[in-house]
Design goal:
single chain, 108 residues, 4 helices
């Protein structure tokens, strides 16, 4: 017999893109304020940026496409600002060197 133990995501889960609000993935984004939490959040936003840049599920319907483009522009600004925020925190904490080549592409 095998036992599977999982943990529900917190009510205010930070990494909903990873957990879908259902199961805690143990990413460290919701932990106490610390350099490790900042690094986890930086990695989360870097992953969100990659998904955003590589989005290819555009609708054929003109009305829906216009809405998608509007949302894509808004997400672009938001994700850039969050990524830059945590990249700066990670650099200050000197946990590791952020990927400045990627960050240069997402200057606010």
């Amino acid at each position: 017999m095998t036992i599977h133990i999982d943990f529900a995501a917190q009510r205010n889960c930070y990494a909903l893109g990873w957990s879908y609000g259902e199961i805690c993935v143990g990413c460290g984004c919701c932990g106490k304020p610390s350099p490790e939490r900042d690094r986890a959040r930086y990695e989360y936003w870097l992953d969100e940026w990659e998904k955003h840049v590589n989005f290819k599920y555009w609708s054929d319907d003109a009305e829906m496409r216009a809405l998608q483009e509007k949302n894509h522009k808004l997400n672009h600004k938001y994700i850039k600002s969050r990524l830059n925020r945590y990249a700066q925190k990670v650099a200050i904490n000197k946990l590791f060197q952020p990927d400045y080549e990627t960050i240069a592409l997402v200057e606010v």
